[in-house]
Each structure stands twice: as C-alpha cells, then as structure tokens.
## 1
Amino acid sequence: MSNAPSASAPSIQVVRDGHVAIVTFARPPHNFADLATIEAIGAAFSAADADPDVRAIVLQSDGRIFCAGADLARDNPVAEDQPAGSRNPFYVAAARLYAVQTPVVAAVQGAAVGAGLGLALVADFRVAAPEARFVANFVALGFHPGFGISAVLERVVGRQRALLMNLTARRIKGEQAAEWGLVDVLASADRLRAEALALAQEIAAGAPLAVRSTRVTMRGDLFDLVQRQTDHELAEQAWLQKTGDFAEGVRAVNERRPGRFVGA
C-alpha cells in the first residue's frame, strides 16, 4: 500500500511493517496542516481500514517539528465564510480522521501546535520525545480552538488541564505531557519511531475483531462529537478572525513577540 505525492501535493508515504501501516507526512519545514495534507492523511487511514491485513497505524512526520498547525498568515484553511448549512472542508477532513476504524499511534518528535495538537489527539496513543511540545496556542492568536480540540483534549487530560492549556497557550513539554496522560510513552528522539512501532505491533498482535470492537466501545461517539464541535468552533472563529486582536495575534506570533491585545 503506497501513495506517491505529486509536485503540488504534500508528501505522504505509506509503508507496511507486518500488520502495521506506517503513515509519514511531510510539508517542510514546519509541516503545516493544510486541507491537502489532512485529506491525504485521511485517505491513507481509509486505505488502511479497507485492508484486512492492517491492524494498527503509526502516524509520524519527517523533520524537527511534528506539525506546527495551520499557517493562518498565508494559508488560513478556515478564512472563507461558509454558505448557510455547509461545513468547512478543512474541518470535514479533520472530523473524517476520527472515523478511522484502525487503532492509531502517533510519534511526536517536536512541536504539535494548534491543529498539530489536534492531529496528535486523533491518535489513540501518543509516543513522544522529551523535546516534544504540545500547545493550544489559539488565544495567543486572538482565536478560538479548532480541529475539535475544545472537546477532545479534556477527554485525554481532564477538564481543568484542558482549560489551562486552552486559556493560557502554555507549552506543555514531553515530560509533563507524560505525567498528564497526554503522552503514553516517552522515548528518546533516536528511539521514538521504534517505540511507536513497537506499541502499534503490540496492538496488532491482539485478535483484530476484538480490538476493533473494544475500541469502538471505548471511543464511543467521538466522530459525531468532533463533527458537532468543529461546527461550533468554526462559528466562533468566523467572527473572531474579523477582529483587530486576531490580526495583531497573527502578527505577534510571526514576529515572535507577545500580542498587544485591546479586546476589539
């Protein structure tokens, strides 16, 4: 099972190791999450689901950064107003990731910021290096959380910690993320991919019908929840990105300085 990227598409590679599909994405240097990238990952997930020999997935990225989120300054995937009753294509693709039936292990080597945090949360388990950083940086941009983060993060770390991350844009280091349960396995950078693969292989060693059945029971209505939540998130983002604070927040992040917000 493989995907050969075109010159204009993000690089998505899928290789097999036994019953594990290893999905690697790259959009150097920051691995920004755009519509094409999220759709390509979704297509790789769907292909894995359709292959009876695939029993687990590893999701990983090339480079120093796992995923720096969406590039709101140059390629904002939620900038356009949507017609009444329609869904934003970026969030349709994001929610689709939660429909994956095969267990997913994410290998997070560096920063997982904004939508990159959302991408890491799609996985059932996260294996991370101490150098990893998990950041819900939306308020630092004058923005509302997206990618379903406002609903999913608290399922992983609890309501108070999710609230702390979302209201402060605090960077949570790999060690603290492991203490919080946001990271399931902490591994050195040189062992990261091997440990993620080992966890995926451990899952794949179980009876596949039983694994899927148990996972469906425990994940519950996560796909439906993310669909509903991204609709709400988009509505909040739509008016916030028309404010001066949002314009200032994007400038401030790009200039690596604190935002000077005025509440308008």
## 2
Amino acid sequence: MSIWTRISDALSALANGESLSEVFDRLRTPPERSIAFTIAVIALGAKMAKADGQVTKDEVTAFREVFQIAREDEANAARVFNLARTDIAGYQEYARSIQRMFADDPNTLRDLMEGLFHIAIADGQYHPDEDRFLSDVAGIFGLSDAGFQALRCRFVSDAKPDPYSVLGVTPDTPPSEIRKAWRKLVRETHPDSMMARGVPEEAIKLAEKRMRDINRAWDEINGALT
C-alpha cells in the first residue's frame, strides 16, 4: 500500500466523522508520523492556497514539487489534496494537532513552515492574506516573531535575507559561536537527520533551499570577518 493510499484512508476517516485528534493519535510514532506530517502539509497547504481567494495551477505544481508523486499514485494524491481543500475543519485545528504531535521537535515544525512558504510564493505573489495565514500558523507552532521573519525573508522577494537571522545569531555573537551555529544547522538539515525526525522522503527536497541559504549566510558572514 503506497503512502498516498494510506494518507487518503486517513483523510477519508475525517470525512466520515472521525475527529482530527483521533486520526492523529494513530499516527504518533514513526514511521506513521511521516503520514501525519504529509497530511499537515497537504491540509495546511490546500487551505493556505485558498487564503488569497483562489488555488492556482502554480500552487498545485508547487505542492507536487514538495512531494515527488509517482504516476501510479497521481489519482490518490489528487484525492488527498481535494479532500483537504474541502474538509470543514479549520486550518487552526490542523495546526494545533500537528503542534501537539511535534511539540518536542521544533525542527519538524520548521520543515513544515518551509513547505508552506514554498507553496505560498509559487504563483509569484505573496498575498497579505497568505502572510496572515502563515503568521498565525507560525504562532500556533510556537515560532517566535523573529523566527517567522527570518523564514519570511528567505522566501519573499521584498526583503533581503539577513545572514545573521538565517543562522539564528546576531552581529555581536563571537565568531566561534557563529561557526558552531552554522555547523549545527548544517547537521540538522542533512537528509539523514530529517528522515530520523520522521519527515517523509518526499519532503526532503524542502531542505535543499535551506542548505543553500545556510551556507550563503555563513559565506557572507565569514567573508566579512576575514
């Protein structure tokens, strides 16, 4: 049984009256947690794609970029997306459920936020309603305002990423500590580390941009220090 069939079954349970908390309770431990993560990206992504009033082809394509979908799984994947888009549960309910599941793993919540940003900017515009949606979800996830702005500046073209914010340091941080922060982020962004956190293999592609941003930030700071 493919992951898409299992995800489709989980969302069908929601459509048939089972509560979100009941479904997520069955998905609390690896490898099932990867299904919960995928449902969260699908559900929140589908609902966010409607935040600006429409779901564009580019946003659906961005969803497909996050999750590598085999041809034989396309029908189930489309069903999952449509179920999530029409489900009556509010996005806050999904966000709170996934926050409880990954409360001890903020890195996975960050992975999810990056996937949502990727979908939000896919149509070349970052709508104010999408910004409010993402800010609200980030708050539910426990992400600080500074952390949200650091993510935002990496994805939204109206702000140049601050290299210190990307690494989670300040210009006053000692160079040795900046190096440690950079190395820690590189380790956390490695595909093996992400899979150990229960992130599905399909979503590992999310880390590629983050790794580029982390290394670019380090190069910029290191160049200024030398």
## 3
Amino acid sequence: MEDNIVLEAKVMWSQLDANMHLRHSAYADFAAQARLELMDHMQFGFNELARLRIGPVLFREELKYLKEVRPNELIKVSCLLKSCYEDGSRWSFLQKVYRQDGTEAAIIHADGAWIDLDKRKLTGLPEEAMQRFMQIPQTPDFILQPTKTKL
C-alpha cells in the first residue's frame, strides 16, 4: 500500500449498489474528497482557491476496478500528482483505493485544470500558488509539461 494516504473512510449503506458492494459513483466521490483533503493539507484548499478566485475543473476521470469493496469496510485513498503544465493550468492525479486489508481495489486517473471564477476561462496559477501546488507529492514518473500558449 502506498504511504501517501490522504483519506480514510467507512463505506456507508447509501454508497452500495444492488450487489452489496461500493457503487461506481462512490469511488469517484471518494477520489474527489481525497484530492480536496490533499489540497487542504497543502494550504491550497477551498479558502485559498476562493481568495485566488479560481476553481478546479475536471475534464476526465477514469476508474479501473480491481477488487470489490463491501459494506462497512474501511477504505484508504492515496493521491499523487502525475503531471502538470509549468504554469499549473492543467494537471493529472493518480489515485488508488485500498480495502482495509491493504488490497488495491481501484485505480483512478483524473485530469483537470483551473478556471478563473470571474472571467469563466481556464487559467494558470499565480506564482505563489504554483509553488505550493508543486509541493504536492508526485508519482515517481511525474512529468512537468511545457505550457501551451493558448488555454
């Protein structure tokens, strides 16, 4: 199991499907919460985003299910930055969901960007925010990509 666990949670009744295991959309909910927990831990949470007048936009979220997660099971979710543009405008996270016995239950890839909440256009990060964003734990194969000229 990875050591960058950012969320631990118990599977609730409302998160189950007809087969009595964690429903597909609950994985996405846990992944989103884990990303927010990580950002908050890095002093880059909702208060900071509100101050900067930017917000996250999710373009793609891909889930690969490996093992079922059952009712009342405790899960752990890891979160690592896999890539981003040099200005932070676009980013990708790699996340894993683990069952309480340490078995890897799912792999999640999330790609997104930042939107300027006033202009309603994609934007890069201010320099001080980019410095904090780059402190997020990264995958061993992390890629810092050149920023494209037009967002």
